[in-house]
Amino acid sequence: MGIKGKTIVVLGGRTGLLGQALCHAFTQAGARPVALSSQDCDILDPKSVDIILDKEDPDVLINAAAYTQVDLAEEEQEMAFALNATAPPLLATLAARRSIPFVHYSTDFVFKGDKTSPYTEYDETSAFSTYGISKADGERGLLKLGYDKTLILRISWLFGPGRSNFVKKILTLCDTRDTLTVVEDQVGSPSYAPDIATGTIKLLEKKATGIFHLANSGQTSWHGLASMAATLAGKDCTITPVPSSEYPTKAVRPHYSVLDLSKYIRTTGMTPRRWEDALAEYVQKELGMAPKA
Ligand SMILES: NC(=O)c1ccc[n+]([C@@H]2O[C@H](COP(=O)([O-])OP(=O)(O)OC[C@H]3O[C@@H](n4cnc5c(N)ncnc54)[C@H](OP(=O)(O)O)[C@@H]3O)[C@@H](O)[C@H]2O)c1
Q: In CATH, what number is assigned to the domain containing residue 113?
């Protein structure tokens, strides 16, 4: 389907990291995004979403809204499951009633992390954390509903403009600290939100449905990502690698959650650019920083 001229309702589009990138990409592609936050409608109250869908009469419904606080989810399990597991199939039902595509996002944290090669769409999910389990339940709910115009994109390690993210936090910390410690035994695929947004458009154009993995190409550790960001930004900060055991968190994260992008590449004919190139664009063009001469 061509995107130009289409109306696209983006839940999470007004304030979310990914949602804002999606709305920007849709505008660039000549579509009319309707950007929403929890102030506009509550995905826990499908009636409030239904009213907006009646008013906007969209061609696509996108759910970029979620409970995304991975550690806090261990304390707020009920809210995490309500937003990440219960809401998605209810939203897909609203799209099904209108026979429009429904796009939903999931995460690499649905995987346990005990593989040593990239996770494919056909690998079993088996998360440790409440966040990961709730997102996996959301996927299962959508598959059980079986609406045939549903597209689920698993993405990972998101960074980009518009909202706080790991890269921005590291660069801010570098301004006040001489040294930082960052975990090195968790390896994954960084994803630049604007690249996920253009990738979403490519899949919509191909009328893709089912589960897809999407991230930037390549892999690194959190330490690798932090170090590269600091170098690209010219920060004088020593970033020391540490094992996860030295940085305990409430939620257990996978040690390895690199996503296999073959299905996306086969379907769209496009290979996402490497994470280092996307990071350079974010740090230097978006944040206006530069490496040391
Ligand atoms: N961030 C990552 O590293 C990452 C990694 C893998 C996958 N993902 C997935 O990618 C998707 C987007 O994540 P993100 O990081 O862009 O999220 P985010 O920045 O935390 O934004 C979440 C959005 O959801 C909205 N929202 C929360 N509760 C809502 C409710 N009850 N009703 C309506 N809207 C509500 C928020 O609106 P308010 O601002 O009004 O609360 C916000 O716009 C999620 O499915 C997430 O699981 C993210």
A: 3.40.50.720
Mutate-to-test residue for ligand 1 from 11, 14, 18, highest number of ligand atoms within 8 A of CB = 18
Q: How far is the CA of 180 from the centre of ligand 1 (A)?
A: 27
Question: Domain of 44?
Answer: 7-165+189-218+255-273
Q: How confident is the model at residue 241 (pLDDT cuts 50, 70, 90)?
A: very high
What is the pLDDT averaged over residues 175-184? 96
From 93, 103, 16, select the one nearest 59 (Cα to Cα). 103
131 domain residue, yes or no:
yes
Number of domains, the chain: 1
CA 15 – ligand 1 centroid, Å:
8
Q: Whose CA is nearest to atom 20 of ligand 1?
A: 68
Has this prediction a pTM greater than 0.85?
yes
Q: Is residue 282 part of a domain?
A: no
242: in domain: no
Does a structural domain hold residue 176? Answer: no
CA distance 165 to 267: 29
Q: How sure is the predictor about 78, in pLDDT bands with cuts at 50, 70 and 90?
A: very high
The pair of three-digit structure tokens given for residue 225, joined into one six-digit string: 């990502």
Q: How far apart are CA 262 and CA 268, in angstroms?
A: 10
Atom of ligand 1 nearest to the CA of 39: 40
Query: How far is the centre of ligand 1, averaged over its atoms, from the C-alpha of 251 (Å)?
Result: 18
- What is the secondary structure of 235-265 as a DSSP string? ---EEEEE-GGGS--SSPPPSB-PBP-HHHH
| Residues 103, 152: Cα–Cα separation, whole Å | 6
Of 34, 39, 27, nearest in space to 62 by CA: 34
